UniProtKB/TrEMBL annotation:
Any coiled-coil regions, as ranges: none
Keyword Metal-binding recorded: yes
Gene Ontology MF terms: hydrolase activity; metal ion binding; sulfur dioxygenase activity
Lineage: Bacteria, Pseudomonadati, Myxococcota, Polyangia, Nannocystales
The keyword RNA-binding is annotated on this UniProt entry: no
InterPro entries noted in UniProt: Metallo-B-lactamas, Mito_Persulfide_Diox, POD-like_MBL-fold, RibonucZ/Hydroxyglut_hydro
PANTHER family: PERSULFIDE DIOXYGENASE ETHE1, PERSULFIDE DIOXYGENASE ETHE1, MITOCHONDRIAL
Protein name: Putative metallo-hydrolase
GO terms under biological process: glutathione metabolic process; hydrogen sulfide metabolic process
Domain Metallo-beta-lactamase: from-to ranges: 12-203
Keywords: Hydrolase, Metal-binding
SMART domains: Lactamase_B (SM00849)
EC number(s) stated in the UniProt entry for this protein: 3.-.-.-
Length: 296
């Protein structure tokens, strides 16, 4: 198995191209659609570079995999799906996220919350084949209720559940997130894997300015992770995670990203004036009166 990371510095996101060198079968995990928030403009520079690499390597893309509905970048999954004629898969609990954000964004009645926007919904423990690549699904909720980790041979792709061993874990303060659930996902599930299991993370925030990194191991995570080691108690982690989350700002692209990603990477359809619109709730976290003054 070969793995090539693609890093998006604007969102600190790591996308992975994974392939079998013998058959050339491949999957992509968590692709990025570029978005400039000031101009509210999308572009496909990142996902086009990924697609070009697939062509240059002579690979046969079989599936695009999402670890969850991201809150920090728009998904480029549909661009790849259209270019290569493949499907997009995500954890089956995406329906919970869709139900939550359909209400937040006041989406149209015909917006489905059954996950049907995706081509395949994946359950815990499921093993499915992408050509010659065998992929095991491990549900790892906590950051969101729909997060999954993908295991391919000796490697796992953890999305926002587990980061580099010098950084920590994903935040748990999004709707239906849970620090308790994340502890159980990482400590009880991922840390039960063999120590030599390679861990490929969904983001790298380069703490203290260190060089970009994307790969660690279960052993290193259990020994070194500053938030969640093998000997960290559930109570200690939950207290630390919730206190840390309470001080964090919302992701800059939270509403833009989730709105697109719960619809499997589709941007909103144009209105009658041929302009597309994103819906951005105002003062969602701190409600105001009609003049914008915070309510008591």
């Amino acid at each position: 198995m070969q793995i090539r990371p693609f890093f998006d510095p604007a969102t600190y996101t790591l996308t992975y191209l994974v392939w079998d060198p013998n058959t050339k079968d491949a999957v992509v995990i968590d692709p990025v659609l570029d978005y400039e928030p000031l101009a509210s403009q999308t572009s496909t520079t990142s996902v086009d570079a990924l697609g070009d690499a697939i062509d240059e390597l002579g690979l046969h893309l079989r599936w695009v995999l999402e670890t969850h509905a991201h809150a920090d970048h728009l998904s480029g999954s549909r661009v790849l799906a259209q270019r290569f004629g493949v499907g997009v898969a995500i954890g089956a609990a995406i329906t919970e996220v869709q139900e939550t954000f359909k209400q937040v964004f006041d989406l149209d009645d015909d917006f489905a919350t059954d996950g049907s926007q995706f081509d395949r919904l994946l359950d815990d423990g499921e093993v499915f084949e992408a050509g010659s690549i065998s992929i095991r699904v491990i549900t790892t909720p906590g950051h969101t209720p729909a997060c999954v980790t993908y295991q391919i041979e000796d490697a796992i792709f953890t999305g926002d559940a587990l980061f580099m061993d010098d950084y920590g874990t994903g935040r748990c303060d999004f709707p239906r997130g849970s620090a308790t659930a994340l502890y159980e996902s990482v400590h009880d599930k991922l840390y039960a894997l063999p120590d030599e299991t390679r861990v490929f993370v969904g983001h790298d925030y380069q703490p203290d300015g260190r060089p970009l990194a994307w790969e660690t191991t279960i052993a290193k995570s259990k020994a070194n992770n500053p938030q969640l080691r093998a000997d960290t108690s559930k109570e200690s982690f939950v207290k630390l995670r919730e206190a840390r989350d309470a001080k964090l700002s919302s992701p800059k692209l939270l509403f833009q990203s989730v709105q697109v990603n719960v619809d499997a990477g589709r941007i909103p359809k144009p209105h009658a004036n041929e302009i597309r619109y994103l819906r951005l709730p105002l003062n969602l976290f701190k409600p105001s009166d009609d003049l914008g003054r915070p309510k008591d």
